[in-house]
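fyi for ur records
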Amino acid sequence: MRRFLGFLLVGLVTTLPAQQLMENRVPAAGLELLHYVHETPWSIYVLKIDLQSPGLTLKAAKANRHLFSLATTSAIAEFNHERERPVLAAINADYFHSSGVPTGGMASDGVVVKAPISHSVFGMTTTGKPFIDIIDLESRIAGKKGTVSIDAYNTPRGENQTILYNPFYGRSTRTNSWGNEYFLRYVDWPYSLNDTLRMVVQAAQYGVGDMPIPDDGMILSAHGSAATDFSQAVSLLDTIQYITQVKPVREKIAFFITGLPRIVRDGRVSVEADEGPNRHVEPRHPRSAVGYDASGRFVYFIVVDGRQTGYSVGMSLAELAEFMVKIGVHQGLNLDGGGSTALVVNREIVNRPSDTTGERAVSNALLVIRE
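which gave:
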C-alpha cells in the first residue's frame, strides 16, 4: 500500500522550473555546499557529502546526549565538536515531543536511544553504506541457562517487562522497588547493532529500584515473570551475550535516526504519506531532508527556507521530492521542518530559520565528522 500511495502522488506533481545556482563552494574536503534560488521564491541549501572522502563519516547525535533534552542544531554540533574529530556540518533530524524525546527511534554509535517505530529511518552501516527503511529491532540476552527477550529501551518499566537502560536515559533508572535490576558491564564496546556483544553481570539488586546507570554498560530492569525468567537464565558474574537484530537490514549498523515520511524511492517522487499522520504534506513550509544517490557514495543534506515572504515561502513535500530527484537523490527522507529547519556548516548556520526568535531547539541531529 505504501508504494502504491507514493507513486499515486507522482501524477499530481508538476515539473518544477529550473533553479538558479547562486553559490557553489567547498567548505571542507569531501563537502560541496550549493545554494539554489527561484522566483517562487525559494531559497534552498544543499550539502553534498562524499562518503569516500578520507576520514569523513556521519553520526546521529542526541541533544546533550540525553533522551529528555533539547538543543539547537548548532549547539548539538558544538557539543560534539572535538579538536581531533571536528564536526564539519549538521542538520536537524526527527520530530520530537516537548520533553525532548524524539518521535521515532534512534541509535547512536551502536547504542539504542529509543527503539524504532513504524516510520522510515535514515541509517548507516559500519561499512559506510547509507539506507532508508522502516526497521524492526529485536534484542535479547543469552545466558548460560537460557535467553530473555528485551521488551523496550529507556522507558518506564511495566508489569512483567524487561527494560534496558543506558546513559541516554539519565543517571538512574527511576524505577520503583517492585523488580530486580542488574548492572551489565561491557566486555565488547557497542559500536554497532545487528551484532552480538559480550557483557558481564557485574552487580544486582532485588526489590530496591532506581539503580544508577553506569557509563560502561547498561542496567537491565525486570519485573514479575520477566524477573523470574532472567534470574533463571543468568547468574551474578556470568558473561552473557547481548544480541541485536535489525530487520530488514543485514549488515552491522552504526546509527539510525527517524524522519517522516519517505519522499523519494528508487529515483522517483514517492511521498509515502501512509507511514503516519502528517498534516504538513501539501502546504508549503520550511523543510529539511536527507537522501543519497544510487551508488550510495553521496549523501545530501537539504534545507528549504520558508514562511518568509519575499525571500522563501517553503515547499510542499512533493515539490521537495521533485527537487531532490533533479539533483540526483535516489532515496530520500523528509525530516522535521518548520522552525526546526537548520543547516550548520563549519560552525555557522547557512540558512535562515523561520522563527522570529532564531534557531529552534530540537531533539537530535545528523552530523558530518572528520575522523
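The CA atoms of residues 262 and 364 lie 18 Å apart. thats all i got for now
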